[in-house]
What does this fold into?
Amino acid sequence: MDPYLPHIFAGILAFSVALYVVLDGFDLGIGILFPFAPGEEARDAMMESVAPVWDGNETWLVMGGVVLFAAFPPAYAVVLPAFYLPLVLMLVALIFRGVAFEFRPHGRGGGRFWAHGFHIGSVVATLAQGIALGGLIEGIPVRDGAYAGGPFDWFGPFPLLCGAALVCGYALLGATWSVMTLEGEVQGWARRAALPALGGVLAAIAVVSVWTPLADARIAARWFSIPNVLLLSPVPVVTALAALGLVRSLRSGARNAPFLFAVALFLLSFLGLGISLYPQIVPPSMTVTGAAADPSSLRFLLVGVVAVLPVVLGYTIYSYRVLRRQPGPSAGYGSGAGPDSHA
It folds into this structure.
């Protein structure tokens, strides 16, 4: 089993990151869209729609960080110094956003400040995540197992493009989540808001799909060599069909389908990223097997993951079951009744 352990943990890491992006993505998207909602009642309803689950969604970010640290310590030791500033900004923004989420209903005149804080924290956290992702895709210089670049190597056109793309993507998730969970005027507004966000996502997918093969011959060979071009062609085809299904479901008045299609777009993009990079974990020089911890450590860690992962999944599923029974906006975060009303 030992030769497969690095790949098992790479799968666990990918699973954790994908769940984080989808689950925290829609509530970050709520924050990104927050100031554009049609009135205070709409903003109250949007905040209420994520109140039972928003903090639990970030569990998967912690899970991904722990797996990276414990299972791939050399990769962790390179990624952290490469992206210190974006990651610190992300953490500060997430903390400020959480404070704003809790304080807004009790603002006593400062509600507007906390509303703006909720929005700014969501945008900054999303930008930082996208910039770090873009910098990782672009490649991290490594020498003798240590980061060999400067503190601002992440600042460039491609990482900034990825940051803007993720803002559009999370806005799309937030809009389709609002379509699925809310009613009336705010639901109609969310349908309209989802279309420009989708346009930004599709434009970013197109640019990245052209940019990365042109910038990296290995990615070009992975996608366009024979027989890979035939074997992998279903990925862009299904992505296009998911985008078409999303547009049609928004226009037809469907409730759940837009969110499901938006999630499918994210997962297909994540799959495309995996196809482009795997088995590299820190492009271009660190692979999953080369950066893996000692097999004895991985075996020990696997026991803990097998014990903990079902608990975290169970908690997540239970939280969303509670969400289905949540009260209306008049009883929770939006009205000022506070988080204790969800106990």
